[in-house]
Amino acid sequence: MATSLKLNIPTNAPRGSPAFTQALKACFALHAFQADQVQFCKSAGASVSLEAPKEGIEIVDINAIVRYLARIGGAPWISDDRAPDDAWIEWEEVVLRPRIRELNTVLDLAEKLLAKSGIAKSGSVTPAQIILFSTLYDTIATAPPSILDRHPQLKGWYYQTLESEWAIEGIQKAAALTTVSSLDSVSAKAVKTAPVAATKAPSKPVVIGTEADRKVQTGVQMKTYAPDEKILPRPGEKNILITSALPYVNNVPHLGNIIGSVLSGDVYSRYCKARNYNCLYVCGTDEYGTATETKAIEEGVTPRQLCDKYNALHRNVYDWFNIGFDHFGRTTTPEQTEIAQDIFLKLHKNGHLTEDSITQLYCEKHEGFLADRYVEGTCPKCQYDDARGDQCDKCGSLLDPMELINPRCKLDDSPPVVRPTKHIYIKLDELQPQEEEWFHKSVTEGNWSKNGKIITESWLKEGLQKRAITRDLFWGTPVPLEGYEKKVLYVWFDACIGYVSITATYTKDWEKWWKDPANVKLYQFMGKDNVPFHSVIFPSSQLGTKDNWTMVHHISTTEYLQYEGGKFSKSRNVGVFGNNAQDTGIPPDVWRFYLLSSRPETGDSQFIWRDFILKNNSELLARLGNFVNRLVKFVAAKYEGLVPDFADAAKDAAFDGFKADVNKLLKGYVDELEAVHIRAGTELLMQVAQRGNQFLQDNKLDNATFAAQPAKTAAVVGLGLNLIYLLSALCYPYMPATGESIARQLNAPVRTIPDTWELDLLPGHRIGKAEYLFSMIDPKKEEEWQSKYGGDKKVEEALKEEEKKKKADKKQKKKGASKAKAGPVEAVKDAAAALLPSAPAEQ
């Protein structure tokens, strides 16, 4: 039996801290195993340690100390330093290290552990019992008394253990040796009769990691703006203006909509801000046009009411996804009318507009000209039955309603007739030389996405033609010409002007962003179907005004995101839409990372539930989350939450290869993001996290190394913490909440993305409290979510059958309609008039 043992207990171990839990374990073990030859000593260190001078050992791992005291205390079932049931190992691995935040979840696991290990039924005290009880003690003692009611087996074991002599004496001894004083005078009887009240937490919360505790290099903090400060271009700085395709207001955005524009734009905006560029990101809902009118009729509301409803819905979805717009507006504003009409009038003044009489489809049943989206029919290019008058959703071709085969009125399904009307056209053919000259310069200097370049080149190669920019509608920007009082600007001409008007609703100094091309670079994000409007029509309109417009520098485009092998469809309840993502309970950052890591940049990509779960569990949780959690907890346990003195040891040439690897990956990350290669950034982010895991593994960061090689361990910890700080910045564009959590755990400001990795957390810096970044997703959820959101094979087959039935019903309806008597025209007119009170009579 060893003699002259010294047990060092940290005096600065407040209730709720890892050090206090360590002290409890040591005191419980000392009394449980009657190791009275051990001398208690107060210590200024950060953790419990046991010195055995005659044996020439010092034990610093608290669980090893518990097992050592059990052995020297003469426990008959202890043959070595490991308990035979080893339940403590499972507890440590299953509960303490994973990302579990919910107390009830922790208690559920503890109860299962009790049943599995047999701790509760054991007649003697085991190290596993002490470790489990110590870990739960602070949590349960400071929680409401009813917290254990849902866990009857655990409750019985906990209070039975609390009344044992070793627990009572251990609590009192730990309280006397540490900064906790509330239990110093508590008697054993008091503990037995009122265990919860006796272990009440201190009234003042423990503050871990304040700004006063920071020791961080200057100049690493990300620039912030005051709440009422407007972001404006600054002379001599890198001024970046970012827009993403305005989501149309008449629907709920699905995952494909989100990744195609607003989320991609958000990543680049956050990247620019993490580089301390002067950056403004604007977006808003596109609210004018035929689709809004038709949707309003379907829902029985006015177009304004419809826009108000869906604008709020879009805002809620984007807020949940943590899309960090600097301003999110809408196109139905006075600013939109003023700026759009100004552009129109300047084009007219400069001779780039022309009037022409055309034949247009007219519905005799409700007596109105049919704008493009009021007409449906068969696509002449791919034979798709449900093509719209402006575009085919299947092949993506832009169409004229007159081209449709077997056209029909969307409102009443009747066949339209052709009648003459007049419209205003923009003469794109005359503007093509200017457009081409600008395009070749911009696409080269801005390094556009490949499909953006190809689509624009295709339009220019075919030769631009004049295109109508007015429509026979009520809901839109009024045409500012005499004789056109009952017409509005066509939405594809009007919508891109929305970026300008939305900026104007943000700041009256909007021209500083939009009319200063020498100092501002414009980046635009969109799906490939929006390319021509941004690369041909809007730039041609800008050029035609002869104003000094800021024109697009870089266009970033995506292909289509498919859902489990098919298309998203709200009407068919197939796919995940913005509100559905919230319903799953999976945090926004996990959704963001998955979508961005599978961003359809060079071809269509698939949303697959199995991949989604695997990406969370094997990458986010296993690589990034475990790396951060392991190191932060190690520092809290071994260094009292302080960054050790690692500066000299970190200069050892043995670490040069690691530093070089990190800087190489960092350079790759910056290069890819500067080129707006967003998906590649996710790959490099995870490579940095994996290099950190490898670094800890190569250097064997554990208790043995901590005891045997303190200088090396300090260097590994110092380098590791600084790599985590770098990771917080690399995460921020993709997973902002995760980046902020890491910074919070390190008690450091949200930081910039540097060109070169430096050691910015200095020795003596106090870190904050550990947080779990990610949680495990049960693989069984795949089948549940597939069934709920229409992703499994049975649902796909059912949808195909439904599509066949729908086509058959349409054919039957047309056949029957041709034999039926025409209904009264007034009924349709009255319905339209009630919903669109300002509509022209002929509509």
From TrEMBL:
GO terms for molecular function: ATP binding; methionine-tRNA ligase activity; sequence-specific mRNA binding. Residues 240-631 form the Methionyl/Leucyl tRNA synthetase domain. Its EC number is 6.1.1.10. One of its GO terms (biological process) is methionyl-tRNA aminoacylation. Gene3D superfamilies: HUPs, Isoleucyl-tRNA Synthetase, Domain 1, Methionyl-tRNA synthetase, Zn-domain. CDD domains: Anticodon_Ia_Met, MetRS_core. One of its GO terms (cellular component) is aminoacyl-tRNA synthetase multienzyme complex. Keywords: Aminoacyl-tRNA synthetase, ATP-binding, Cytoplasm, Ligase, Nucleotide-binding, Protein biosynthesis. Pfam families: Anticodon_3, tRNA-synt_1g. It catalyses: tRNA(Met) + L-methionine + ATP = L-methionyl-tRNA(Met) + AMP + diphosphate. Residues 658-793 form the Methionyl-tRNA synthetase anticodon-binding domain. Residues 800-825 are annotated as: Disordered. SUPFAM superfamilies: Anticodon-binding domain of a subclass of class I aminoacyl-tRNA synthetases, GST C-terminal domain-like, Methionyl-tRNA synthetase (MetRS), Zn-domain, Nucleotidylyl transferase. Residues 807-818 have a biased composition (Basic residues). It is found in: Cytoplasm. Its main location: cytoplasm. Belongs to the class-I aminoacyl-tRNA synthetase family. This is methionine--tRNA ligase. The lineage of its organism: Eukaryota, Fungi, Dikarya, Ascomycota, Pezizomycotina.
